[in-house]
């Protein structure tokens, strides 16, 4: 995109077409232009335009919108398969909920990235068909550990495929991976807002009909609710990509508010755990909560680093994240030692092996990110190294996810 911008600086119509084609990529590439070009009148005009504080969100009625509605239709049809066929709803939804959302989102970014070659389309289709066929043929149910683990990790696999398409298959450019992580933050916020609005509308609609004595709950949730839930992620993605400035203002605020709060809570929580003598080594449920806490805090750290990287001179924010990372390493160490203790005393199970692998990966990732954060405190310009350390482990997480989904069930005889 950057090369295209430079090549068309004297072609206003082509520049405008590039901007409307993919606003987020255009903004990112424009920000990377050489300082030598800043004296160019066209560059100055576009700089003012891109940095103008537009407060109004827009649907940007262009060629993408009909395709977005088509994707919403497809997502809704997938979600309605149990109602349109004789497939058992419990069987279908326990295995296929991720396939309601991710194929539509993937198709959207294939459209935006213009990945229309036969080879690419067949490759992406195969990447979804293999796990779809596998998970539906996998023996087991909600009481089988390997089945539950496969279902839990399946969204991560599809998320990895989505990320590969988002970055255009360019694994060497870490800035695109950072953009993908940032997109996820914007996506979660926008999807949450859409769902909240949907719930309010649902309550109002059901309430209005109940006043006149008509109970529409069953039909509403069966027809309107299912379609609405399926369409929400697609619409959120479209709004995020078409209004990057509006949506992008919320996640940094959330990151700055919650990072110090979580640091305080986690510090008090750890102190309370040791004071009360709570034992994660023999209490399985407590260890589970401990690991869920670890995953949540780890996600907050990565997300906060991505957002704080927008202002490399934010020394206080960097110090807070460094302290939070150190505390999280302590939490990880306790959880890791507890799961190793349980394996040594009661043997290897699918759940213990999956948690052990995840904890080792998270600890290694945390150590690398923490080290880079420590170096950044003294030299703010090194924030780029922190961003690189974040993206380095993403492919490794994906490999471990594949192992949990495709290897562990056979390793433990589908138990």
UniProtKB/TrEMBL annotation:
<keyword id="KW-0812">Transmembrane</keyword>
<feature type="transmembrane region" description="Helical">
    <location>
        <begin position="253"/>
        <end position="274"/>
    </location>
</feature>
<keyword id="KW-0472">Membrane</keyword>
<feature type="transmembrane region" description="Helical">
    <location>
        <begin position="353"/>
        <end position="374"/>
    </location>
</feature>
<feature type="transmembrane region" description="Helical">
    <location>
        <begin position="318"/>
        <end position="341"/>
    </location>
</feature>
<protein>
    <recommendedName>
        <fullName>DUF4153 domain-containing protein</fullName>
    </recommendedName>
</protein>
<feature type="transmembrane region" description="Helical">
    <location>
        <begin position="220"/>
        <end position="241"/>
    </location>
</feature>
<feature type="transmembrane region" description="Helical">
    <location>
        <begin position="394"/>
        <end position="412"/>
    </location>
</feature>
<feature type="transmembrane region" description="Helical">
    <location>
        <begin position="147"/>
        <end position="167"/>
    </location>
</feature>
<feature type="transmembrane region" description="Helical">
    <location>
        <begin position="65"/>
        <end position="85"/>
    </location>
</feature>
<keyword id="KW-1133">Transmembrane helix</keyword>
<feature type="transmembrane region" description="Helical">
    <location>
        <begin position="91"/>
        <end position="111"/>
    </location>
</feature>
<feature type="transmembrane region" description="Helical">
    <location>
        <begin position="286"/>
        <end position="306"/>
    </location>
</feature>
<feature type="transmembrane region" description="Helical">
    <location>
        <begin position="187"/>
        <end position="214"/>
    </location>
</feature>
<feature type="transmembrane region" description="Helical">
    <location>
        <begin position="118"/>
        <end position="135"/>
    </location>
</feature>
